[in-house]
Specification:
With 192 residues, the chain is α+β, with helices and mostly antiparallel strands. 42% of the residues lie in helices and 29% in strands. The protein has a domain at 12-143: Nuclear Transport Factor 2, Chain: A (Roll), CATH 3.10.450. It has helices at 24-43, 47-51, 71-84, 144-152, 154-159, 163-188, and strands at 54-62, 66-69, 89-98, 102-112, 119-131, 134-141.
């Protein structure tokens, strides 16, 4: 897969974005830059770079996790980047667009689903809203039924399009995120 850029990926949190600019052409470029920085960081598995593109009050939504707010959205990316470290992962992003208020991108990821080892090729359309030069709203849309078929095989093809499956998946993914956060907090505590 092609990567978002052909040059060496710079950690996006090393490039501060200006917060208040009035010129719409500069703001549009900032929005596109913010989206590209976010996905360059994802390609580099740089969760802190991704988090630096998010506003403190960000709301992230996708079919797998549902709604995640604030630091929980950034922590989800930290968990995902941690989980793919050293594993098969291909990423491609293009069709990045933006203006002063919103933006969008199309991205694809190929990886092996950890519970089954099955290869997944997910195709995602992302939309963004911006506040103060950062992402305040991020929605990833993908075909959950298709994803379930790839990740789980015949069982996923059978029930992957149901509301029951979506609720159960969101319960499981949020449980994994809770466990990740507990482990991260425990690791940061000094030994008594």
């Amino acid at each position: 897969m092609r990567s978002l850029s052909s040059h060496k990926v710079q950690k996006s949190h090393d490039v501060p974005l200006p917060l208040i600019v009035k010129d719409p052409y500069i703001v549009r470029d900032m929005s596109v830059h913010c989206i590209k920085s976010f996905y360059n960081a994802f390609e580099a598995r740089d969760a802190e770079g991704m988090a630096s593109c998010y506003h403190a009050d960000v709301v992230f939504t996708d079919p797998a996790f549902g709604d995640l707010e604030g630091s929980r959205a950034s922590d989800m990316w930290r968990m995902l980047c941690n989980n793919i470290e050293g594993k098969f992962f291909e990423f491609h992003c293009d069709q990045v667009q933006g203006d002063e208020n919103k933006g969008s991108a199309y991205w694809e990821a190929k990886y092996d689903f950890s519970k089954t080892g099955r290869r997944v090729h997910n195709k995602i359309h992302a939309t963004f809203e911006f506040k103060e030069g950062k992402i305040i709203r991020h929605i990833d849309r993908f075909d959950l039924h298709r994803w379930a078929g790839m990740a789980l095989g015949w069982k996923g093809r059978l029930i992957g399009g149901t509301g029951f499956f979506r609720r159960k998946l969101q319960q499981q993914t949020n449980g994994l995120l809770d466990r990740y956060l507990q482990e991260r907090q425990a690791a940061s505590q000094p030994n008594k």
